[in-house]
Amino acid sequence: MSRAGRGFGNRPTGPVPHRPGPIGRLNRAFRVGLGTTRQDLGERLHDTTIARMRRSRTLLGMVAAGWLVMAYPLSEGREEFALGKLVELVIACGILLVGSFVGIAVFLIASTPDRRRDLTRRLGGPISSVLALATGPAVTWLSVTIVKGDLVDGPGLIAFFSSIVGSGIICRVLSLLVLLLGAFVALVLLVVSLIYTIVAAYVCVNSCFRAAEVHELLPALLSPLLVWSLFVFQLIDGPDVAAPPPRCCTRSFSAAR
Q: How far apart are the C-alpha atoms of 95 and 107, rounded to whole Å?
């Protein structure tokens, strides 16, 4: 029997498509959240020069913020500084979440019926961003509850295993092992969920909760709202570093006197 008769002749001769692994899927998820790759939309605008300018702006901002922190003493302690940045991240998430909800609602109301149905089909991106962000605090709360023993405690485990193997040394050993294993897994989940929540919050803020998948103009309208809101918050809260006033202003004021 020939090779074609045995089924070998039906094999494809072209290149086999590459399937991304777990790391590739995770990288794609973060790139989608950052807005670098999205579903293929008709009005999608992509300019490589603008994308490079955005990355350069972000890098320069990070370098300038790091230089200020290293060059001048902090107005408060390091812990207060770190907590303050986390509070600003939470405030930014709240502002963009409300702003995205209002902006999407306005776009849906102002659109024509056909266009409204098209925009409604694109709500999966913003909804998935909100759910992904809410997953982090939910897992954190569950981990803390397990570590504190509010969900499962020693007497409850002993009562559970005693109904299966009877009250004895085996019951107590099994209860201790399950309690220690659960505490270890909860601690690991707690650390991972905290890191995940911070990264997810940053991704949601950077992508404006993927509002661009509904309409390209939404991030451009939401970004000034976020910038001015954080400006007012930082103006009320005070500077992070104890930097001296500019010398040029001081000299001008002395010369005027």
A: 18
